[in-house]
Structure formats: structure tokens, C-alpha cells
Write a structure and sequence with these properties.
The protein has 175 residues and is α+β, with helices and mostly antiparallel strands. The protein has a single domain, classed as 3-Layer(aba) Sandwich (Aminopeptidase), CATH 3.40.630. Helices cover 34% and strands 34% of the residues. The chain contains five helices and seven strands; from the N terminus they run βαααβββαβαββ. It has helices spanning 11-25, 32-37, 40-53, 108-122, 137-145; strands at residues 3-5, 57-64, 70-80, 91-99, 127-133, 149-159, 163-173. The protein has a seven-stranded mixed sheet with strand order 1-2-3-4-5-7-6. α1 crosses α3 (40-53).
């Protein structure tokens, strides 16, 4: 199966997907200068730390070329729900879900989502939540096709450079 648990060796591939997918997915939603300043090297350091000390779980989608070359093209970070108004004993959260834009629309995201939801189920969760940028219509359509629905909860996050974004919470049953 192309989806597997991430290892420390995957940090560079995850960082590359993280930065480039932000730049591609958010090009019309966030300022260009902010997106251009995103650093794969900085994300690589963050992902090395996450993979070494995190209590969550990270899955990667590894695409294998016909010649046998392997490439990380997507990842999902997940674990217990962090929202104070939700029971974290029965609800898991998808913290991050990104796929390289060259692989959008090929079914890779659906495969990765199924694996992420299955892992949350195996961890004893009955529901899953995630947060999505309010104006990210492509992601919203994807999550809705995966069975998620908005629950009406929103939050404002501040990114570096005092950029405020509004996120909406989505949820679904996974029993």
C-alpha cells in the first residue's frame, strides 16, 4: 500500500510537500510574499522534531515510479482532538492533510484520507475533526466528498507577518 507511517527519514519529503502544497493551494488565499518566504529547510527542522517527539501520528503517501524511485507526495498528521469543546477521548483530529499539487485529482488524497480515518478508528475514536481555511473551496469540496460537514465553529489564527486567517471546523463519524 502506498500509505505508511512516517519515519524520521521522511522529514525532508514531508517538508517539501508541506511548503509546495501551501504555495500552490493558497496562492489566491494568502499574500504571495508570505508564501514565497516559506522555507523547506525550516519545515524540515520542524518535521524532524515532530517525528522524533510527537505523541501524534503521521502517515505519508509514497508514490513509486515505474523505475522504482520513491517519492513522498502527501502526508496526514493526526491524533487526539485538541479543541477544548470536544471530548478528545472519543474524537480524533486531522491536524494536517497535504498532497503535492501534481497529484491532485488522481485519487491519492482519497486513499490517504481513508488510511487516516482508519488509523483514527483503530486508536478508539468515534469521530474525526479537522480545520480548513474558510475560502479554500478545493479542500472544502474534498473534505465534503470524504463525508465531513461543517459544524459551525470558526476560529481566527494569526500567521507570521500578522496575517489573519479564518478557519472552519469540519467533522464526521468514523465508526
Amino acid at each position: 500500500m502506498p500509505v505508511r507511517p512516517a519515519t524520521l527519514i521522511d522529514a525532508a519529503g514531508i517538508a517539501h510537500v508541506h511548503v509546495t502544497s501551501w504555495q500552490d493551494a493558497y496562492c489566491d488565499l494568502l499574500p504571495a510574499d508570505f508564501l514565497n518566504r516559506l522555507s523547506v529547510k525550516q519545515r524540515w527542522r520542524q518535521w524532524k522534531n515532530i517525528l522524533q517527539v510527537s505523541h501524534g501520528h503521521t502517515l505519508v503517501y509514497e508514490h513509486i515510479e515505474p523505475a522504482g524511485e520513491r517519492q513522498i507526495v502527501g502526508f496526514a498528521g493526526l491524533g487526539a482532538c485538541r479543541d477544548p469543546d470536544i471530548d478528545s477521548h472519543t474524537t480524533g483530529e486531522i491536524y494536517a492533510f497535504y498532497l503535492a499539487s501534481a497529484h491532485w485529482g488522481k485519487g491519492y488524497g482519497a486513499t490517504l484520507m481513508r488510511a487516516a480515518l482508519e488509523l483514527l478508528r483503530e486508536l478508539g475514536n468515534e469521530r474525526a475533526t479537522l480545520w480548513v481555511l474558510r475560502n479554500n473551496q478545493r479542500a472544502i469540496r474534498f473534505y465534503e466528498r470524504a463525508g465531513f460537514a461543517a459544524d459551525g465553529c470558526t476560529k481566527i489564527e494569526t500567521l507570521p507577518g500578522s496575517i489573519e486567517i479564518t478557519e472552519m471546523r469540519y467533522w464526521r463519524n468514523i465508526q
